[in-house]
Design goal:
Blueprint lengths: L5 E8 L3 E9 L2 E8 L11 E6 L11 E2 L2 H11 L1
Antiparallel strand pairs: 1-2, 2-3, 3-4, 4-5
């Protein structure tokens, strides 16, 4: 069975203070998620997969997730 993700909250600046989360698996950085601000209108509050660090893992289409748990499930299915 695969190891669960370890989460590390971070602040990411893209013109405003955005909440982010680094996802690690087996001590390797796998992804950076950023919580979208009100600037993103109807997507505000959702988590955007900003970057993935897993070889061969595409983020197309660029997914957004209602929760970090949803993002973890999406990544688990693809790793």
């Amino acid at each position: 069975m695969s190891a669960a993700f370890q989460l590390q909250p971070v602040r990411v600046r893209f013109g405003s203070d955005d909440h982010g989360c680094l996802l690690f698996r087996n001590d390797e950085l796998v992804a950076l998620l950023v919580q979208l601000s009100e600037l993103h209108e109807e997507l505000s509050g959702q988590w955007y997969l900003e970057t993935v660090f897993a070889p061969g893992l595409s983020r197309q289409p660029e997914p957004t997730f209602a929760t970090i748990d949803d993002a973890e499930t999406w990544l688990t299915d693809r790793l």
